[in-house]
Sequence to fold (322 residues):
Amino acid sequence: MKITNILPLAILPFFVACMNDGSSKEELPNNLVTLKDYNIIIAPDLSNRINMALYPKPIHDTVLISNLIGHSSDLLTLNTRRSGQADIYKIDFINRGILNGTSFEPKKMTIDFNRFENNQMDRVKYIRQGLKSDEQQFSDEVKRVYDYSLKNQTGADVWNYFNETVKSSLIDASPKRIQSDNNILVDKKNNNVVLLLTDGYLENANKGKGYRLDPALIAKIRQDFKASRKPDLAAFIKADSAYALNKTDFNLKDVNIFIAELVDRSLDKYGVAKEQPTDFQIIKIVWEKWLKDSGSPNVKVVQAVNTKQEFYQEFEQFLKTL
Fold:
């Protein structure tokens, strides 16, 4: 495969420097650069957590998703990318049964730049003339999904989502080496990124040990930790398999995971902790251990934010580290 002028020569030294920082043991060609694209999978937990009357939080999911998709043009330029981006941004359903008997159209909740791989002129035209309307369509369809889900609660099996369901939304993450007309070797790589919107409490129908992280288990971990008088919460949790979620059978080695909008039920309405350690402190440790044990190379867990700008900045910084 051959790509014409994939990189402006002006930015070539930057990429060559990045590839020759001495961090890799492999001897790399002097003319090799790496470009990374993003397959961003937005997976909202559509359980009763979306009922703001039951679990109020500062910003509604739909506002956060709309704001993120509205930054599509900014996402395309992450890590000094200039052309040929093959990003995909899409909604995925933890419980895909929501699509049964409904009129939702997944294509309306997908923005796919990979389709322009062999026609960059159409890609440029789309960004200038079609992207904004597709961003609006994306946001409108997501709002329809949330309105429907609020009235038709289905629950969310997050454990099985990472074990099975997510597979069909992933794309090949193996680097593909190609050569440009400027005699530059380019390793093109796709980064699969799951953006999971959840409150962090796993309360699905599977009551088996290792599949739930409900208030009862969190309270037990807290009680046991206090009784142990040990100083390190993370070490305490990781040392006892009784507190762990079962690692997935599917290896998540090609899945980077950003978990957002955790609402800590151990805080009062003013944000003051009613319990120590807090629910969030416990949940974060359990989730990170579970997903890393399951193979994920990068996991970040953040609490509910106060502004949509803060949410985007957190997510953007995560992408930059991949």
User: Anything to note?
Assistant: Strands lie at 2-3, 32-44, 88-91, 110-112, 176-180, 185-197, 255-262, 299-303. The first strand starts at residue 2 and ends at 3.
